[in-house]
Write a structure and sequence with these properties.
The structure is a single chain. It contains 9 helices and no strands. It is elongated, with a radius of gyration of 20 Å. The protein is an all-alpha fold. Helix 1 packs antiparallel against helix 4 and helix 5 runs antiparallel to helix 6. 18% of the residues are buried.
């Protein structure tokens, strides 16, 4: 990131250019982690730095959408406004039903046959971690809810008896299930 005083701290962030929702969400999470790691909002020129560097992470139609959002916004640029604008951009890029659709996908998609249990559980946790980025005040499933509402309902039918006998459906931690 480049500070207002010209100092440079190189961090490699992906550039998102239209199309892949997962890549978009990955960029948002990486950018938020970058801002938090370097405590950029604590800097006196934080707004300038955050807005400039976020725009650098966008290309194509997504950058155009971001520019439109900023054009229609007031001149107040701060952390809260940035988060609101990020939610607006995300809603536009992913669609207004993305949060609901993703939760339904998690609840209703069985474990793929060709995927190991570890891979599947890691995939569920990864998708779940993106939920808060998809909607203002959007909440990810807690681990207990992920177990009861997603994992237990989507294991292969042949595993159900052993899964219940081992009382894995009552566990509160995914690590305990693995």
């Amino acid at each position: 990131y480049t500070g207002i005083d010209g100092t440079v701290d190189k961090t490699n962030l992906n550039i998102f250019e239209d199309g892949n929702d997962k890549e978009y969400l990955k960029l948002i999470r990486e950018f938020q982690n970058h801002v938090a790691t370097y405590k950029i909002w604590n800097d006196e020129h934080a707004a300038y730095t955050v807005y400039k560097n976020f725009r650098r992470c966008l290309a194509g139609a997504t950058r155009d959408l971001w520019d439109q959002i900023l054009q229609n916004a007031e001149e107040n640029r701060d952390e809260l406004t940035f988060q609101e604008q990020l939610v607006e951009l995300t809603s536009t890029v992913l669609g207004s039903d993305a949060f609901r659709n993703q939760k339904e996908y998690l609840k209703n998609t069985p474990k793929p046959e060709n995927m190991s249990v570890k891979q599947w559980l890691n995939r569920l946790k990864n998708i779940n971690s993106y939920l808060p980025l998809m909607e203002q005040d959007g909440q990810a499933f807690s681990e207990a809810d992920l177990i009861s509402e997603v994992i237990t309902k989507n294991i292969p039918a042949a595993w159900t008896k052993d899964y219940r006998l081992a009382e894995l459906h009552l566990k509160k931690s995914i690590k305990d299930i693995m």
